[in-house]
Amino acid sequence: MPDSGVEPISIDVGYLVRRNLASLYSSLVTRPTGQAVRLAIEKVLAEEAGAVCISIIDLSQVSVMDFSCADEVVAKLLLRFLPEDRPSEVFFVFRGIQDLHKDPMEVVLKRQSLVTVCETRSGLFELVGAASAEEVRFWETLQGRGRIEPSEVDGLGVGAGAGEAMESLVRRRVAFRNPLTGGYQALSALLTDGA
Length: 195
Fold this sequence. Notes:
Layout: E1 6-12, H1 13-21, E2 27-28, H2 31-48, E3 52-58, E4 64-65, H3 67-80, E5 89-97, H4 99-111, E6 115-120, E7 125-129, H5 133-145, E8 147-148, H6 162-171, E9 175-177, E10 184-186, H7 187-192
Helix pairs in contact: 1-2, 2-3, 3-4, 5-6
């Protein structure tokens, strides 16, 4: 387990569609399909999630995603793990994102004032959804550095209110605050360097 105490759990949505819906195709169309996939993801998390985990939701094998499925699989999943009374401490990164996924995700996330971290097929990490310009700026700074210690926050050179902006990213669950050091970590850093 990494020193941050965050365990990774990878969930292949294409596999879940084929297994749970007995389909040869990995298409996310219709609300019932999206709901079935979300419930399957929640079941995996309930069975496997440790005290704190980062769940990599892999959409790379999903060939079609409509708005209702983006709402069920992405927005409702995020909403379930956002409040203080969430079932467990899970952070999400959506992997294998292409425009066919990003466009419907962006619409449903903005509509519900949600934001998430996505990894494109080329390996780039992006903030997708409803984020302010200030949140994007601070998230990009954190993403570029991987981690920022508490003593470094005020000297970031990206404007006033850095501490508030970083805490906002943590509350919105697109950044991680290490309980041991108090430092901020990009979710990508938790995936790539073992934190």
